[in-house]
Amino acid sequence: MSSEKKLIVPHALFPSRPGAAGEKKLVVAHAPYWHDGSKISTKNYHIMLAALPAVLMGISQYGAPAVGVIALSMACAMIWELVWNLLLRRPHSIGDGSAAATGLLLGMLMPATAPWWVVALGTFIAIVVGKQIFGGIGFNPLNPPLLALAMLVISFKGIFDFDEALRHYDLGFAMSYPLGQVKYFGTAAIDKFSVGGLLMGQQAGAVGSTFGLGLIIGGLYLIIRGYIRWEIPLSFLVGVFVTALIFNLSDPAKYAGPFFHLFAGYTLIAAFFLAPEDSSSPANFIPMLIFGALAGLMTVLIRNIGAYVDGVPFSILLMNLANPLLDKIRPKAIGKVVENA
Amino acid sequence: MIKRSFLGFVTPKLKHNIVPGPVQELPVPSKVTLLLKEPQNGGNASSLKAGDTVRTGQRLFASPDSAEYVISSVTGTISDVAPYMDSYGRKYAAVTIETGGQDDWEDEFNKEPSLDTALKFFEYAPGNPSFRPFADPEKTIRTIVINGMDQDLLITANQYVVQNEAADIKEGVKALEKITGADRIVITVPENLVQQANTTGAELKTLSTTYPDSLPHMIMKNMLGQVVSAGDTPEDTGVVFINAEAASAIGAAFETGRLRVTKIVTVVGKDGNTTNIRTRIGTPLRDILQACNVSINERDRLILGGPMRGTATYSEDLAIGPDTDGIVVQDEANSSQVTDYPCINCGECVRICPVKIPVNMLVRFLEARLYEDAASMYDMECCIECGLCSYACISRIPIFQYIKLGKYELSLTETAEAANE
């Protein structure tokens, strides 16, 4: 018995056992002993930082109500996450910044006039239905802010009718929702929108999704710092561009041109902040390209011939569902033995 | 520690240290501890007892018919023979020898280069070469690769040997040809050591200094154009890897008639400064750290090997073995910590993996302990154990540990199944 015990405790070899007086306790762990220093919280803070230009533009345009929507959305998202953690007695996860980033993005997708209960409900859908019931961060099959947006758009059409919602604002440019205009009145109705104007945020829309230039700058920052993968935004934008171009060539009076579709509605925020969300998008190279391109294609299809004014939430959610299947397209591991059937 | 670069979209490149520092000779330690593998046939009738006197270069074995032995690195008296188990559960007898007086060389080593000599005297040589694949009738070894590049970052022990002991390696190459009859002997070195390596007479291949290009599987693929199948070792493909230090030790043994009992070790202090030392195999870590002026505090990390693939150990009383190329000391503040956060599917591991394993999927199966599915569907057995996935993981999942555990558990089941058949 004693000899067996000696074998199990390797310290028995040494006269000075760990814990004995004078012996220093060392920390053991498995290799590797280096880490590149990345953290989930850092990543989420950078995403929020990159979103700031677009958010600040929205706030400067719509004033206090925009601040209210963004602040309430972030706060509610974090509170829902905390409440869920407390209810399920799970470790508190609001420190990772994921709930705050989700709240910020959802706020950016809403009109400045959204009532408080829509914001509270939306963040509940995003955090609890979209993320936590699947197991929390990393397990959400769908993009949480987009899931919330899609459910809100279907449920409360009037609130997300930007022409109607923002009718009391006069910001010195054509105060109408470009995608609505082109859908119901054809391309003649969108002559008042110039590409430059759209880029500078001169369109009615959600708080943080109209300032195209700001979104592009933020997106490029995230790509350069490696917080999002470039393949998805690029292929998404290419998908939108090519599909819109084909439609435009087929009937220029009915379908708007590709640049219009790139800079109107939710396209840019989707390309840089929503489609590349980690958990709901593929990780391999070719699947990422397919994911982005098909999401772009679906977006324009829904916009041009579908029932909804903007196809972004539905197209990306649909591709989110295809993600596990897409990610099966992967390179053969080196050394893998393929058994021929 | 090398941090993520500002331009995060570039896959980080971890570079080896390529300028081996001078070697500091350590005095003969007052005691050495040698780990003798427990014989597989269970013959535990130990012929080693406390009080026995041993000579430098003497073979020590548990029983005369056992294939396992160690070579005493000092002259002195055995003070203790105790059981020892390593972190993988392998059992050893730890033989502690108190040094006494001058080196008295055992001269049972004969200078006849044959496989029998190699099996009998070189299995415990510095660099830990193995000649058993040559004796295995199921394996046909055609190629020997002398790896002049170190297999972990920061470490320059093997590079030092190529730089300064090319003549010994040349003798080693000749001896290896005679011992093994291999058709092809290749030496792989970084570009700055090409000149020295050219004089060794082996076929020269230049390695990049990017980690993990110096690992055997990567050398097989990039330099020899042979891919090792999942779960196989290079030996199964007909290639044996030998460290430059081992080749040099073999050469020197035939040249001088004495077995080499010293090991070159790269010591990496807390500030990242490296020192190369030469000391007897079996020297306690405490002696080495003292000689290098590295002090250890509570909760520090003491790593045998390098920062990517080494093994953290729990006591300064442990000793270096013939395979210990480096000792890394990490301050508590600089130690990377793992978390139990889930994978967020960011794909960093997929992009950094040198053998294109879908690590994002693999880790999900490993966390759920589905080792067989992990091996059959997500290529666990293709892993070459470089540790880059854990290095880059934003959730700080101990992926490398999961993979090692998965392989270990799977090998246990396979052994059990084989035993039941």
Descriptive overview:
The complex is a heterodimer of chains A (341) and B (421). With 341 residues, chain A is an all-alpha fold. Chain A has one domain: Ammonium transporter fold (Orthogonal Bundle), CATH 1.10.3430. Helix content of chain A is 57%, strand content 0%. In chain A, helix 4 (98-108) runs parallel beside helix 6 (144-155) and helix 6 (144-155) crosses helix 15 (312-326). The longest helix of chain A has 25 residues, at 64-88. The radius of gyration of chain A is 25 Å and the shape is globular. Mean pLDDT of chain A is 89; it is low at 1-21. Among the domains of chain B are: 29-99, OB fold (Dihydrolipoamide Acetyltransferase, E2P); 115-256, Rossmann fold (3-Layer(aba) Sandwich), CATH 3.40.50.11540; 348-420, no CATH class. At the A-B interface, helix 1 and helix 10 of A face strand 6, strand 14, strand 15, helix 12 and helix 13 of B.
Please outline the helices and strands.
The complex is a heterodimer of chains A (341) and B (421).
Chain A lengths: L1 H7 L31 H23 L1 H25 L9 H11 L7 H14 L14 H12 L6 H4 L12 H8 L9 H5 L12 H14 L5 H20 L7 H6 L3 H8 L10 H21 L6 H15 L15
Chain B lengths: L22 E3 L5 E7 L15 E2 L4 E2 L9 E2 L4 E10 L5 E9 L15 H7 L10 H4 L7 E5 L9 H8 L1 H15 L3 E7 L3 H5 L4 E5 L8 H7 L16 E5 H13 L5 E7 L5 E7 L4 H7 L9 E4 L6 E3 L12 E5 L17 H5 L6 H9 L3 H8 L9 H5 L6 H22 L1
Parallel strand pairs in B: 1-13, 8-9, 8-11, 9-10, 12-16
Antiparallel strand pairs in B: 2-7, 3-6, 4-5, 6-7, 12-13, 14-15, 14-16
Helix pairs in contact in B: 4-7, 10-11, 10-13, 11-13
SS-derived structural category of chain A: mainly alpha
As a percent range, the share of helical residues of chain B equals 25-40%
- What is the level-2 CATH architecture name of chain A? Orthogonal Bundle
Sequence stretches where pLDDT stays below 50 over 5 or more residues of chain A? 1-21
What's the pLDDT, averaged over the residues of chain A? Answer: 89
Write the H/E string of chain A, N to C: HHHHHHHHHHHHHHH
Might you state the CATH topology name of one domain in chain B? Rossmann fold
Count of helical stretches of chain B? 13
Q: What is the number of E strands of chain B?
A: 16
Tally of extended strands of chain A?
Answer: 0
Shape of chain A: globular
The CATH homologous superfamily of one domain in chain B is termed NADH-ubiquinone oxidoreductase 51kDa subunit
Largest interface: A-B, 58 and 83 residues
Global morphology of chain B? globular
Number of domains of chain A: 1
- Report how far apart the termini of chain A are: 53 Å
CATH class descriptor name of one domain in chain B:
Alpha Beta
Q: Helix amount of chain A, in percent?
A: 55-70%
Q: Mind telling me the C-alpha Rg of chain B?
A: 21 Å
